[in-house]
Amino acid sequence: MLSLRIALRYLFSKKSHRAVNIISSIAIAGVAVATTAIVVVLSVFNGFSRLSEEHMSRIDPDIMIAATAGKSFGAADSLARAISAVADVMAASAVIEEKAMLVSDQARIPVEFKAVGDSYDSVVDLDGVIIDGAYMNSFDTMACMQLSVGVANRTGLRPGVATVAELYVPRRTGRINPANPASSLRSSRMMVTGVLQVDQSDVDNDRIVIPLSEARRMLDYSDEATAIEVSLRPGADAAGVTAEIGRIAGDGFKVLDRHMQQADAFRMIRIEKWVTFMMLVFILLIASFNIISTMSLLIIEKRSDSSILRALGASLGAVRNIFAAQGFLITLTGGTAGIAAGIALSLIQEHLGVIKLAGDPAALTIDVYPVALAWGDIAVVAAAVICVGALTSATTRLFTKNIR
Fold first, then answer.
1. Span 247-280, pLDDT tens digits
2. How far apart are the first and last CA of the chain?
């Protein structure tokens, strides 16, 4: 305890040599800047993660049920009805996702269609992502399709009664006549009624939405589907509903919540976040070398004080502990100042949006840098500072071997 009190006195007292004061201040500032950078960068990654989740929620259902083996499964409509009866489930709808060829007068491009039922707007708000036209399954006697913005740009198709395109898929059943290759395809002629945009490249590039009945006709399905999508009531216990749906569906199905549906994307964000964290901790470790050089100068300056303490009866270990504690306190002071500065900067950006994104605001989804402060990250940064401080303290002890 006495060693710590003396170390605290050394920390805040002026040194006899001005250079030692300057080097000590630089060492504390270096640790503070590195720690501030760690807090801010982790908060930025949190902001992008939250932004991805918000965009994901615009098109992805609360829960999705898919087969564990194979692409499609039967009795999808009856399973959807059973799931709809679960408490806190607002709606459940069978869907089909498949690849196809879209043919218009201007272009022929590969697309991925999502076939949805008449009640699908209760599962996902498709009207909310339509930027041109309207969402509808049929108009008079003709089936309708909605194009993603990427498909609309590449084909030149725009919503309108006179805008019609054909969708082709490979025939699943029956014999194929080699003399007539067209017989190996099934087609459907549909009206384009809307253009959608969700600011997700995998959706906006090549996705179209068509009626479930039309997809089943082209694929020779009766009640099959590739997934069942579920929406929950506000405030529902998502974990409890997921467990109940898993019990109803059985072993042959996997039940995925929002994060599980985009597991690869969120895993990549987490990996990038913590790899960056390790790189910044390495920079913090390099900054701590300044503290070690400061401590070597301080040991030389306080040589006479060490001799006095030894003459008064202080043990050699107690004297060495003074300088070891001093190295730890310098690191802790810089780290605490850096964490406080990082928290302040992150909160200012999160709530005030001081730093803007470059570019045309009308063309951007957001116009400020996304930041989200997580107190769990602050605890991790504090632990890293303590570990670096302990390492600095242990290294400082090596320089005290010459004290007698």
1. 998 888 999 888 788 777 788 888 989 899 999 9
2. 21
